[in-house]
Structures are given as structure tokens and as C-alpha cells.
Task: structure prediction
Amino acid sequence: MDIKTRVLNYYKNNQFIQKYIKGIDQVANEVVLEYNGQKKNVSVDKLESITSEMNLIDLFNPAPTVNPQSAPTPQVNASIPVVNAEIVPENREQVLLTEKEDLSKETLNDIKILNELKNKEGLNNLIKKFAVNPSTGLIDITEAIKKVTRNTMDEVEKAIRNGYEFDTDLTKYDIDGKYNGTPINGSSSEDEKIVKSFNNVKLYLDASKMYSDQANYTDGQVSTLMKTYIDKIKEELHGSVSVPVNTPVQPENNPKPNVFKDESTGGVSSSAGFADIFVLTVIVLVYAVIIINLVMKLK
Result:
């Protein structure tokens, strides 16, 4: 049985581990675990030996060993019974009491793991919960990408407006991209938050490679989508930043007279009509003078 099948079977059968698996190291063929901010690569054999959350904690915080030769012999009163108790690190009880996440709830981290395992059946089971083509009843990866993109844009815009960091912990996001964590303060710039948020969308763009009959985004298309994504968020946050260019008006070679329409006079305005009448009158008078001179000469 290959590593991906073994990891997938373990992943399905051990819900407690799902929020701690962060990915697959393809080079070393190891599973990447994260606990309390620490990351550790483990083999599949080691992973399968972890049967409880307590085992996982021991893996990251092993209990200190005591050399029996150097340890002092305790003075025990024979009349008082001795109870053997397991040595528990001080922070273990606190961790178990504070981590109350619903482990049965699927998150974007599940999408990431299933992508790495190339498990289309597992992705189908998750995507069908929010993106199904109503006409065919089949998984609609394009619709899934649209919904996750919109939800992620809403989340990063909310973080920017309220001065919060954009949380990169995939276990804090529903499979449709909605954030369920507690907002955290941060000093990242607006651009950094937007770029980090696109990684959530990219999970589904990567998943589209398993749905090539519907959509298969190349690296070039992903880059184009990322630019469009960034521009759209900035537009929604700040409005359109494009400034119209004022193109100079070229003069016409044969400018036409400026004639203003006047509905009350049937077409030509009174000012334009007066000028035309004045010119016609002068022409008529000139011709009248010429005709009178000719008549006088004939007499």
C-alpha cells in the first residue's frame, strides 16, 4: 500500500489528528504535523502509531526521563499507600481544556490534504455540500471557486477595514472560505493580507486539475486571476483608482457654422436668421443699384 493510501485511511479513521496534519512532504514522503506552533515531519509508520491526542502531545513534548541510579530513594511511610501517577507536563491539562474545536467540521485544511493526496472522491464529498450544478446534480468546481473567492474577498476586506491580521490557519475556515476563528491583531500591510488571502482561493484552483472536464487553470491563468482578484478588492475598498485621460480635441479641417436649433422658429434660431437676412438684403440692394444705373443709361 502506497504512502498516500495509508495516510488517507489513517486520516479518515482518526478525526482527532485532522487539525494537526498540515500537509505531505513529497520529497521525504513524510507527513507534516503541527502542534502548538511547532512543526514536525513523521513517517507513515510513526503517524499510524499515534492513536490519541495524548500520543501526539507526547510526540511534541516527551515526558522527561529520570535515571533510576541517580534518583534519590523516596522515604515512604509504610502506613500510607502509594499511588502510581503518570507524570504530565504542566501545559498538557491547559491544552486539552482549551482546544474545544469541533473535529467533525470540515475546513480548508481538509481541502489542502485531499489535494495533496489527489483524492477526488474525498473532494467530491466536501464540495457537494455547497457547490452542485442544479441541472446535472454533479459537482460544480467552477461554482465552488466563485463562492470561495467571494467569501475570501469578504474576509480579507473585513480584516483590512478592522485592522486585523488575515489568519493563515486553514483549520479556522469552513470549506467555502468563511472564517470561524477569533480575529487577531497584526502589522501586515494591506497588500500582504490580500496576497496571503489568495492562497485560500488557490486551493480550489489547484483542485480544478482533478476536474479538467470543467475547468483546469494553468499557472498563467492563476497569475492573471490573482491580479484581477487584487484589483477587485482594492476597488471595493477604495473605489475606482483609474483616472480618465483627457484627450485633446483635434480641430476640424472644414469647420461648420455653429447653428443652433430653435423649435419655435422651425429650425434656425433668431440670431442666426437675422444674420442671413441682413446679408441677403445687402445683395438685393447692390443688384437694385446696378439695374437703376443701366436704366438711366438707356434713357
User: Anything to note?
Assistant: Strands lie at 21-25, 30-35, 38-42, 261-262, 267-268. Confidence is low (pLDDT under 50) at residues 78-100, 242-272.
